TrEMBL record, chains A, B:
UniProt keyword list: Kinase, Transferase
Pfam family, one: Dak1
Top-level taxon in the UniProt lineage: Bacteria
Domain DhaK: 7-328
One GO cellular component term noted in the UniProt record for this chain: cytosol
Lineage, top ranks: Bacteria, Bacillati, Chloroflexota, Anaerolineae, Anaerolineales
Keyword Ion transport found: no
Protein name: Dihydroxyacetone kinase
One BP term from GO: glycerol catabolic process
GO MF, one example: glycerone kinase activity
């Protein structure tokens, strides 16, 4: 397992420097911490700060930009940013209208973002947060708050960014962002492991012909380990599990993301989407928007996840606002 | 090696169906052949048709859209589209102003696109072509016409698309597109093989700690096989080889693409770019635009390529026109 790095200890720092430098038209790096900051922020609005562990690129830094996040606070590989990094990043984009934090629902992130909010509150900065818990394989429906956040993050950030830009108050932005979160479900299947850069070993093991449904982005246990199956079977299995968990019915409109976990090709994601679309058509569910990309990854992990966000008039309004970030761009409609 | 497919014989067909369906806001599929066609084409202009073998997604279909290609003719995995597919795709977007074909310089593509141009000429349709031969590892400078086309395709298509939209004649579009091609060089390094979907075996072999500089997208031999090296050494080696081949000097402006070959992460591409930018800064070369993405891939191949296009006023004018396709979008400036 070869990783294109210099020194395991400098991976995050060097990669953020490179990313910010490549997209310097849009990004600056916080001078002191690993925060990626949007240059052309809209003024006088609630600020959206996202963040989490590194190693899942382009999540989170890749979604800083127009109509999405104002900044991303980046932790070490698969580790939450510390409260200092979160606070410094938030200060840098504060407009006096409050800060909404959006991040994945992991113990370390919850702890550190909560600590940061306490510090900011002491300084008179109003904050709120929405934890993304879209992975319906990671806990049963009665314990959604124990679920992990995976690729559904992208939809939630999209809605939150548009709501901030629309000039909503912090409380209003939080409410619509929670609705986006509550209307989004994801589930994935792992076909091969990722690795921690520099450690030179896989994050988990899977047999030559084995796959695992519901496995987490860091190798957290899934719901079923089985033999490799044809693409249409993989797609249908995920679809059935998603729909069991989600109040989607004939006549509804949804956004779909088929997300590669790292080494899965656009060709493979396309074959999966073909089947998902066939199933949605069969069930009378209309696709408003679909995306086939590797947006929330775990290094070179193989496999993919399917995320579905159910739209209503309000979510659709915000989803349809244009956005432009280096790794996620939508024309308005 | 697990591939997320159904049947090796249907991989290309099913993936095109899925891709077109996901991005149906922009795409339609040709009813008879594997051609991907842009829905919202500008009228009364030269049409840009790109194409080549499948398996390198998002190349070529992913670059059909606003300010880029009007259509892509798609072959089987790593195989040129046949002349019939090319002709049918060209007919579908013909506006009576002529067709420019842009494709990678491979024997099969050259043969089939030439045959298609002959057929179209017989029907009174004016055509021209620009073959992309950016891979400077694949033949010495005195034989640039023997070089292969790799990720530099993206820059050449960007310029060609903008020139078509600007209302230039076929001859003018061809001339500026050739300039873009002549000003673009790429070189890559492979760290692990890709595979042919369904064949279940790697396209080439590399030892556990081996890499190969200059290896082609289909496993064509490179210029040097050696041991794995730190990211900065890989970046500098490619940079030195590029600059040896390319008339770039202090004061010049360039566009840079650090392109992942399949399973290489954005984190790794960012670390590479950090070094490339340091070297360009040292040499006084200014970066006008940079992109860190996996745009021209060979399935789950590991490694990356660096492409540099030297700008002049004319190329910059066209590069700065906005474009929007599912896998490559630029805001205007």
């Amino acid at each position: 397992m070869k990783k294109i790095i210099n020194n395991a200890d400098h991976v995050v720092q060097e990669s953020i420097e490179g990313l910010v430098s490549a997209y310097e038209r849009y990004y600056t790096k916080h001078p002191e911490v690993n925060g990626i900051i949007y240059r052309n922020r809209r003024k006088g609005k609630v600020s959206l700060v996202v963040g989490g562990g590194s190693g899942h690129e382009p999540l989170f830094g890749g979604f800083v930009g127009k109509g999405m996040a104002d900044a991303a606070a980046c932790g070490n590989i698969f580790a939450s940013p510390d409260p200092g990094t979160i606070c410094q990043t938030a200060y840098a984009v504060d407009e006096g209208k409050g800060i909404l934090f959006v991040y994945g629902n992991y113990a370390g992130d919850n702890l550190n973002f909560d600590a940061a909010e306490e510090i900011l509150a002491e300084e008179g900065i109003q904050t709120a947060h929405v934890r993304v818990w879209d992975d319906c394989a990671s806990a049963p429906p009665e314990r959604t708050e124990d679920r992990r956040g995976i690729a559904g993050d992208v939809f939630v950030m999209k809605i939150a960014g548009a709501a901030c830009d629309a000039g909503l108050t912090l409380e209003e932005v939080k409410t619509v962002t929670e609705k986006a979160r509550n209307n989004t479900r994801s589930i994935g299947v792992a076909t091969s492991p990722g690795s921690i850069p520099g450690l030179n070993k896989p994050t988990f093991e899977l047999g030559e012909n084995e796959i695992e449904y519901g496995m987490g982005l860091h190798g957290e246990p899934g719901i079923k380990r089985t033999v490799m199956e044809p693409a249409d079977v993989l797609a249908e299995t995920l679809y059935v599990n998603l729909l069991k968990d989600m109040p989607v019915q004939s006549g509804d409109e949804v956004c779909v993301l088929v997300n590669g976990l790292g080494s899965t090709t656009v060709l493979e994601l396309s074959i999966i989407y073909r089947k998902i679309k066939e199933l949605l058509d069969r069930d009378g569910v209309m696709v408003h928007d679909a995306e086939l990309k590797s947006l929330c990854t775990c290094q070179e992990m193989g496999g993919f996840s399917v995320s579905i966000m159910k739209l209503d008039a309000e979510l659709k309004l915000y989803f349809d606002q244009p956005c432009f970030t280096p790794y996620y761009a939508k024309e308005g409609r």
